[in-house]
Design goal:
two-stranded parallel sheet, 306 residues, Rossmann fold, single chain, 12 helices, binds NADP nicotinamide-adenine-dinucleotide phosphate, seven-stranded parallel sheet, alpha/beta
């Protein structure tokens, strides 16, 4: 099995879980000190490579049965060079799928995003809603990536699931964790004026389960499915709860320039992947305790030395 983006927020916990029972290769540039050791510590074999330069036809390990493709140009890197972003997020994703047209290959997951939908106002986004540009070049490259991956899957007969990821969170981070960091630091939270800003955040335990399930249900033509929590909660409500945990009132500022809320419809996900299990308050508390144990009221670290 191969997980790309294996050091990242989504890829790492999934690679770690798969490596309990399977041989797993973890691809990333491993830019941070300790990345390779962290993979090895969890039984994952590092494959240090740049997705922009990789030749999937010749450089992938032999005998792969599954690929979870989470590696991508994101954030500042995605904005810095749009041609490279399209190469990594779209063209190379198609080459990876094509390279999996081998005997015994069972499932490929392409990580797309809820940021590839056009805003529909205050209603949940369905898989047949039109594409749109939520986050500039990044969104455009993922829309292109879905098309290239779909073409390669059908052309080469490779079973694929395209997951449209909405707001993961947990000890590894995610948008709710970024907002929590700002609450703890006393910084303002910027939200879109179309309040409440509804989301369905998905906690680590659930996204690991749903990631593995997505590998199992892959098909030709690809299964396309939102990947999110089953519960809807507004950023206003979860920030208020996170604020209560640390005794700080969040400072929310409404800004028309803030990205619009991406609110998924989980109906199709419930049919193909099932429901998620972690209630949002439990997930938020666990995330808060993992990231700022010193600040969360009621934890041993927050009580100070006894
Ligand atoms: N987390 C979310 O809420 C969310 C939402 C929507 C979509 N997604 C999608 O989910 C996937 C994973 O996102 P994430 O949140 O886990 O991102 P992340 O934490 O930033 O991780 C990105 C991973 O990709 C690797 N990577 C980046 N550029 C690379 C390159 N040129 N060559 C090889 N590896 C590269 C990174 O390692 P190195 O930097 O060491 O190479 C890292 O392992 C992405 O495809 C993203 O578009 C995530």
């Amino acid at each position: 099995m191969l997980v790309t983006g294996a050091t990242g927020r989504v890829g790492f916990p999934i690679a770690r879980e798969l490596a309990r029972d399977h041989e797993v290769f973890g691809l990333a540039r491993c830019r941070n000190e300790g990345d390779e050791a962290r993979l090895r510590d969890h039984g994952i074999t590092p494959l240090v490579a740049d997705l922009g330069e990789l030749d999937p036809a010749t450089q992938l390990p032999d005998g792969l049965t599954h690929v979870f493709h989470a590696g991508a140009a994101l954030h500042q890197e995605a904005r810095a060079n749009w041609q490279r972003t399209f190469r990594i997020n779209a063209e190379q994703s198609g080459r990876l799928v094509a390279a999996c047209a081998t005997d015994g290959f069972e499932g490929f997951v392409y990580c797309s995003t809820g940021s590839a939908y056009e805003y529909q106002g205050a209603r949940p986004l369905r898989e047949d809603d039109p594409p749109g540009v939520h986050l500039g070049t990044y969104s455009l490259s993922k829309i292109a990536g879905e098309a290239v991956v779909r073409f390669a899957a059908v052309e080469h007969g490779v079973p694929v699931t395209i997951i449209k990821i909405f707001s993961t969170y947990g000890p590894e981070g995610g948008a709710p964790a970024d907002r929590f960091d700002r609450i703890v630091a006393g910084k303002e939270i910027r939200l879109h004026p179309d309040a409440p800003n509804r989301y369905n955040p998905i906690y680590e335990d659930d996204y690991v389960r749903h990631g593995i399930r997505a590998l199992e249900v892959a098909d030709v033509p690809p299964v396309v499915v939102n990947w999110c929590g089953s519960e809807t909660v507004s950023a206003e409500d979860y920030c208020a709860y996170l604020g209560e945990l640390v005794g700080i009132e969040p400072r929310i500022v409404y800004d028309p320039e803030a990205p619009w809320p991406i609110w998924p419809d989980p109906t199709h996900m419930h049919e193909v992947l099932g429901r998620t299990q972690v209630p949002w308050r439990d997930g938020m508390r666990r995330m808060a305790e993992a990231r700022h144990p010193e600040a969360v009221k009621g934890t041993d670290s927050a009580k100070g030395p006894s």
